[in-house]
Design brief:
12 strands, alpha/beta, Aspartate Aminotransferase, domain 2, globular, 2 domains, binds pyridoxal-5'-phosphate, Aspartate Aminotransferase, domain 1, about 40% helix, 7-stranded mixed β-sheet
């Protein structure tokens, strides 16, 4: 297993900070906001009301009901989602792993559009399946098309991972792009594991869920969680929406590994999802703040016309091309080392996401820090 590249950069940045060197840390993958107060209050009340014991492995029913109701708000195709299709876990990361282990095994190929979030590769390999990277089109925000996936498929292909809005690029797949990929997967009988953890964080147009596009959910496993939208990374609550048989398998697997997610965290997530209107006010304010930072960062980069990056339409990352940097074999890693040592900015090299010619910077920080960081990145790149 490889060390998480994100954590390696963070450790280096911490070491510099410990020497008293002020580092601009654009490595982080989490919102810098506090969890909204009404959610924290609901958790405190739940502790006092006795939410201190094991729950059902798949999560408390009110939370699964609220998740199903929330999914149905987006006009799901076909029959409405039921709580029996929902399994709550310790974060979307665990739901993704449960799904991968339950759907794939030795000899199976799993298509992973790259650049992709780093853990998909390791999860697929832990399931003893083969991760097959499919490079996205640089002319289309590094997104893949159904044709590109089909060209990479073999008879051993059993499924694919989808992530929109994307970490690390911030690209958002359009309805048509998703529809074409879903139609291909359905025709081929592939599982689609759709990671929608950044769905609420999109700036130009609403990011669409596969639930509102796929004519059938028979081959769909949709993953989401509270971490990014509600600034609840530390509470560790994620979930899957999957066919009942798959949900049962995932529950059994989770029952033998971690059991239920923390009871108090489930009650916090329940407040976030069930109190939809109240949460929306908070989510919209956070997304508006991310959008301002995104706009500020893009404006700062306009002073460096030679710097190329993926248009950041969602999430809170900007993916910058560093191809050819100082002639290095791994330009992203060389750039990450140089920009940290020479300009005191921490970012993540693109090799962590399967594309060594790029780097990822997070703007989940104040606008002025993000702008200063991106200005230094562009300066290092063009110096
Ligand atoms: C694409 C993607 N999926 C899943 C996760 C995991 O989120 P959670 O905190 O819900 O486990 C992350 C976190 O960085 C992510 O970027």
């Amino acid at each position: 297993m490889k060390e998480s590249a994100t954590l390696a950069v963070a450790a280096k940045a911490r070491a510099l900070k410990a020497q008293g060197i002020p580092v601009i840390d654009l490595g982080a993958g989490e919102p810098d906001f506090d969890t909204p107060a009404f959610i924290r209050d609901a958790a405190a009340a739940a502790i006092e009301a006795g939410a201190t014991r094991y729950t059902n492995t798949e999560g408390i029913l009110p939370l699964r009901e609220a998740i199903a109701a929330d999914a149905n708000r987006v006009q799901v195709q076909g029959v409405p989602v039921t709580p029996a299709e929902v399994v709550v876990s310790n974060g979307s990361k665990q739901s993704l792993y449960n799904a991968v282990v339950c759907c794939f095994g030795p000899g199976d190929d799993v298509l992973i559009p790259i650049p992709s979030w780093t853990s998909y590769f390791e999860m697929v390999e832990l399931a003893r399946a083969n991760a097959v990277p499919v490079l996205g089109d640089a002319a289309n925000s590094l997104k893949v098309t159904a044709d590109m996936l089909e060209a990479a498929a073999t008879p051993a292909t059993k499924g694919l991972m989808l992530n929109s809005p994307s970490n690390p690029t911030g690209a958002v797949y359009s309805r048509d792009e998703l529809a074409a990929i879903l139609a291909l997967a359905s025709a081929k009988g592939w599982w689609v594991i759709a990671d929608e953890i950044y769905m609420r964080i999109a700036y130009e147009e609403r990011a669409q869920s596969v639930l509102e596009i796929a004519p059938s959910r028979d081959n769909l496993i949709v993953i989401n969680g509270v971490a990014k939208a509600y600034a609840m990374t530390g509470w560790r609550i994620g979930w899957s929406i999957a066919p009942v048989a798959v949900s049962k398998a995932m529950t059994n697997f989770q029952g033998h590994t971690t059991s239920n997610a923390a009871a108090v965290s489930q009650h916090a997530a329940l407040a976030a999802i069930a109190q939809h209107e109240r949460a929306n006010v908070e989510v919209e304010a956070m997304v508006a703040a991310f959008r301002k930072r995104r706009d500020a960062v893009v404006a700062a980069l306009s002073a460096f016309p030679s710097v190329q990056y993926v248009h950041p339409a969602g999430a809170f990352y900007i993916y910058v091309n560093v191809e050819g940097f100082r002639g290095a074999a791994d330009p992203g890693a060389a750039f990450a080392a140089a920009v940290l040592e020479e300009y005191q900015v921490a970012i993540v090299p693109g090799s962590a996401f399967g594309t060594p010619n790029w780097i990822r910077a997070s703007y989940a920080t104040t606008a002025s820090i993000a702008v200063e960081g991106l200005t230094r990145i562009a300066t290092c790149l063009t110096a």
